[in-house]
Amino acid sequence: MAELMVPEPFSGGLLLSYKCNVSCRHCMYACSPKWRGDWIGEEDARRVLSHLADKARGRYAHPGVIGINYGFHFTGGEPFLRFDLLFRLVEVAGEVRLPSTFVETNCFWCRSDDVVRERLEELKEAGLSGILVSVNPFIVEKVPFERIERAVRVGLEVFGGNVIVYQKVFFDLFRRMRLKGTMRFEDFLRVAGYSLKRAELIPAGRMPYKLGYLYRRHPARSFFGMSCKGELLREWHIHVDNYCNYVPGYCAGLSLGDARRLDEVCRGINLKGMKVLKALLTDLRRLYELGREHGYREDEEGYVSKCHLCVDVRRHLVEKGTFKELRPVEFYDHLED
Fold first, then answer.
1. Closest Cα partner for 101 from 92, 114, 111, 110?
2. Collapsed DSSP state (helix, strand, coil) of residue 207
């Protein structure tokens, strides 16, 4: 394979930064307070949002409706750490006519009804369509559940039906538990660990390193014969980070190119010299062998998923050479924060 044809994105998210107020154990993007801010610049964001708007134009039957994989979200990290920047980029998205925009938040900032209502109304006035409230056992380790409930309640007042509670299984569970304040994950496991079976938890990014003990592990050869072609070539829920890396799906730490030149990316990527991408498009065995060539040693305890094997080999490779598709390099430094 000499060239990778990347489909035009239908939905996705813009990471304002990888910096977050918490280091969630399940975070696919390894966000944490330890990251440098490196917030995306307005001009870079305008170029990216304009390209995304061009690709989405005419493809949205309901441009004011939002969904997990319907629309474009502002995310991070935690976007409300820089409300000034978030507000301005919502305005920019309106100027370029990007459809179905919403913001994702862990609600750390939702300390009073007045503050939440004021900020959400400002964002709505600027053109934002809705909000996604993140709730799970990892966020409530640091963010009091009352703030999450407040964001949902006030969000419904401001945005009506355009409020996504992700994941609702946990939101409903915490309400039945009458949870107040925060809760250690170990305590959650003791009283409600069964609920993890009904939740969507993707074993990628930081999760295999912090929660791998919850899963059955397999040797690397168990994933040989598998490729990541589907994940790399899907058009929905792609991401662009604050360095303007075009990130396929949930494959953090992997860049298909510069999203400021999205037309060039979608016209085809020359894979010459991109050994990691070539391997992922064909067989994880090839990625494993590439790692072995650079001194990688298989984890004796095994891997919880093909994503775990992939990111573990990639983390080794960034230390051994320059692979331009492995961006941002700093992602690999924060997998175990």
1. 92
2. helix
CA–CA separation, 265 vs 257, rounded Å? Answer: 6
Whether 104 contacts 73, CB under 8 Å: yes
Q: Count CB neighbours of 288 within 10 A.
A: 21
249-294 pLDDT tens trace:
899 999 999 999 999 999 999 999 999 999 999 999 999 999 999 9
Largest CA distance in the chain: 58
pLDDT at 137 over 90: yes
Pairing label, strands 101-105, 130-134? parallel
Token output for 256: 């298909």
Indicate the helix (H) or strand (E) that contains 75.
strand 72-75
Q: Which amino acid is at 235?
A: E
Order of strands, sheet of 12-15, starting from the edge strand that comes earlier in the sequence = 163-166, 130-134, 101-105, 72-75, 12-15, 238-240, 246-247
Average pLDDT over residues 110-129: 98
Q: What's the DSSP call for residue 119?
A: H
Give bridge partners of residue 124 from the DSSP assignment: none
Q: How far apart are the first and last CA of the chain?
A: 36
Distances in Å between the Cα of 179 and the Cα atoms of 108, 113, 137, 234 are 16, 19, 11, 38
Query: What's the CA gap between 94 and 128, in Å, rounded?
Result: 8
Q: How far apart are CA 171 and CA 174, in angstroms?
A: 5
- Of 164, 16, 187, 183, the C-alpha closest to 88 is 16
Tokens 């792609």, located at residue: 238
Task: Give dist(CA 317, CA 296) in Å, integer.
Answer: 8
pTM as predicted: 0.96
DSSP single-letter state for residue 235: -
* Alpha-carbon span 205 to 312, nearest angstrom: 9
pLDDT digits (tens, 9 = 90+) for 222-261: 999 999 999 999 999 999 999 999 999 899 999 999 999 9
**Separation CA 218–CA 300 (nearest Å):** 9
- What span, in angstroms and rounded, lies between the C-alpha atoms of 116 and 148? 11
